[in-house]
């Protein structure tokens, strides 16, 4: 049978080499990609944390700067007197100067209730008292809060585009002795003010944004030179921030992908009113990952080429000698036992070739001996066949020659039994019955011999008819009653009225043989039982005796021709060893089966299955 290419050892070697290379490369690729991915995520988080730190630092520095300026101003005697006396002119000059020095959107002086006394550049109507009171009540120096668009538009340097403003409030209390008489307050609007976010861009080159709620109000992100304010933040990010949690993840800004981090902005009451966000472009990391993947593919491809080359070299070193061995084996397999292999590889293949040659020598010698033995066996078989033919011919001749005088004897015995030749006394009648019984047994033996010859020559004829097995068994038991009585053996019958399709004479022959055997091998004063019943679609006959039983190792042999358990010349019980062999052939010819169950010392049961007539 021609082998497929995949089954050739060279192909297997090539595939194996490729697998050996691919496994570590695949593992390396997985580990490398996973490690690089983890490093990228770690670097991204580190960079985002750095950037958010820079933004927070900028905010903290501004708070410190504002706090320093307001606190210093609140402690000036001239300011204390002006607030105490509500000297608007003096306070106006200070307010204008504070705004100019700090670039805040609004510098004010308020009374102790937070009402504006004076504000920078005439913004005296600024409504900030509510915010100032919160800071005073909570003793807080600065805080974030939301100012309405209408209020913030009064003093913001930028157009607010209809949005409310996120503002930083810085308050320094003004005391007259220990009495609070007012405050110095800074208000800085963060909308569109890039001062807060530019520091991140300057230091890292990454982007930063500030959100009022989820609306971007200040950013370094631009499109065509215009800040991208007014855009809505990622819903996922905003929901996370509202839960007081930082959000780190991928965000899209104007079609560009960024890794971003969002942190919440709280008002003085601890409520989330906005977010600060920093983002680093995803593209550099993607480029790095793609570069690593390309290098891994290059290494994998190079290794694959090397593996293929090595496989081809090994193929020539290994496969060529194996092919020589294969060719020699095929020649040897076609009967040319003088074929030998010559390999000089200096390795296990050479040892294999030497072993092959030794095997060839042994097989060659064995073949010669086998041919010689086969010739002798054929001659012996021919002789045995001739002897077997002579045996069959002898059995046939003897059986026919015995049948003629036996028929005459049986005829005269019948005449005597009928008292045709004169009346018999009881003793004579008993003797005549014994002669009749034994002549019947002799007839069955002759019939068995003739049937055996027919079985061997495959000429056993059958005439099938519908038989009532109950009647058939009754007839056989009646014919053997005298034989059973002579041994004080009770014959018991329990056979259902079942019909089979069979040859009456052959079925009678089987039953007579088996029941006679049961009687013959049973001890005196015992029982022989014949039962018959329907077993699914078969008649099941069971003939049981109470004889010595048959050893287990002999059960399979008892159906062989001429086989007898005790073959000594001085057997107490006679027999030819033909009966069971003929019975088996007859039962099987009826489409049935026969087997024996026996226990030594308890008895034997012969079972017969025959198909029920339909």
UniProtKB/TrEMBL annotation:
Gene3D superfamilies: 1.10.287.130, 6.10.340.10, Histidine kinase-like ATPase, C-terminal domain, PAS domain. Residues 349-387 form a coiled coil. It catalyses: ATP + protein L-histidine = ADP + protein N-phospho-L-histidine. The chain crosses the membrane at residues 296-314. The keyword Transmembrane helix applies. This is histidine kinase. Its EC number is 2.7.13.3. It comes from Methanococcus maripaludis (strain C5 / ATCC BAA-1333). Keywords: Cell membrane, Coiled coil, Kinase, Membrane, Phosphoprotein, Transferase, Transmembrane, Transmembrane helix, Two-component regulatory system. CDD domains: HAMP, HATPase, HisKA. It holds the Pfam family HisKA.
């Amino acid at each position: 049978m021609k082998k497929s290419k995949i089954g050739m050892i060279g192909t297997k070697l090539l595939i194996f080499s490729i697998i050996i290379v691919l496994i570590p490369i695949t593992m390396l690729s997985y580990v490398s990609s996973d490690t690089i991915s983890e490093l990228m995520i770690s670097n991204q988080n580190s960079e985002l944390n750095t950037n958010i730190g820079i933004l927070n630092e900028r905010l903290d520095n501004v708070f410190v700067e504002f706090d320093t300026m307001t606190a210093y101003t609140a402690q000036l005697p001239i300011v204390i007197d002006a607030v105490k006396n509500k000297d608007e002119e003096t306070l106006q000059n200070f307010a204008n100067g504070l705004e100019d020095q700090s670039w805040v959107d609004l510098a004010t002086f308020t009374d102790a209730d937070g009402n504006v006394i004076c504000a920078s550049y005439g913004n005296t109507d600024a409504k900030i008292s509510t915010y100032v009171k919160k800071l005073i009540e909570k003793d807080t120096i600065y805080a974030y809060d939301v100012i309405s668009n209408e209020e913030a538009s009064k003093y913001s340097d930028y157009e607010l585009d209809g949005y409310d403003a996120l503002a930083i409030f810085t308050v320094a209390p003004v005391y007259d002795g220990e009495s609070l008489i007012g405050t110095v307050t800074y208000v800085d609007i963060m909308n569109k003010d890039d001062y807060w976010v530019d520091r991140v861009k300057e230091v890292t080159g990454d982007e930063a944004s500030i959100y009022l709620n989820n609306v971007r109000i200040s950013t370094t992100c631009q499109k065509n030179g215009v800040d991208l304010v007014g855009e809505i933040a990622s819903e996922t990010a905003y929901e996370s921030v509202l839960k007081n949690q930082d959000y780190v993840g991928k965000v899209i800004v104007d079609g560009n992908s960024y890794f971003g981090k969002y942190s919440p902005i709280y008002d003085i009451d601890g409520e989330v009113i906005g977010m600060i966000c920093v983002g680093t472009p995803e593209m550099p990391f993607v480029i790095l990952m793609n570069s690593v993947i390309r290098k891994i593919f290059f290494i994998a491809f190079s290794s694959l080429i090397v593996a293929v080359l090595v496989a081809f070299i090994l193929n020539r070193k290994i496969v060529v000698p194996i092919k020589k061995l294969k060719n020699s084996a095929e020649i040897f397999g076609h009967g040319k036992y003088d074929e030998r292999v010559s390999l000089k590889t200096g390795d296990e293949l050479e040892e294999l070739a030497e072993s092959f040659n030794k095997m060839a020598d042994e097989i060659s010698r064995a073949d010669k001996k086998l041919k010689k033995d086969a010739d002798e066996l054929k001659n012996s078989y021919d002789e045995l066949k001739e002897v077997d033919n002579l045996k069959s011919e002898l059995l046939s001749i003897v059986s026919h020659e015995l049948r003629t005088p036996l028929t005459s004897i049986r005829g005269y015995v019948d005449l005597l039994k009928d008292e045709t030749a004169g009346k018999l006394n009881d003793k004579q009648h008993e003797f005549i019955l014994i002669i009749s019984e034994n002549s019947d047994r002799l007839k069955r033996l002759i019939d068995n011999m003739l049937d055996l010859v027919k079985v061997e020559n495959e000429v056993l004829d059958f005439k099938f008819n519908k038989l009532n097995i109950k009647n058939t068994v009754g007839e056989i038991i009646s014919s053997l009653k005298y034989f059973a009585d002579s041994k004080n053996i009770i014959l018991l019958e329990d056979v259902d009225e079942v019909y089979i399709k069979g040859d009456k004479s052959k079925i009678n022959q089987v039953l007579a043989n088996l029941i006679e055997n049961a009687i013959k091998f049973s001890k005196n004063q015992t029982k022989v039982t014949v039962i018959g019943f329907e077993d699914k679609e078969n008649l099941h006959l069971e003939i049981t005796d109470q004889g010595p039983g048959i050893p287990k190792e002999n059960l399979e042999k008892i159906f062989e021709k001429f086989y007898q358990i005790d073959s000594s010349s001085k057997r107490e019980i006679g027999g030819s060893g033909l009966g069971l062999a003929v019975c088996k052939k007859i039962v099987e010819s009826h489409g049935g089966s026969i087997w024996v169950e026996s226990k030594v010392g308890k008895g034997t049961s012969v079972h017969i299955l025959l198909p029920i007539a339909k």
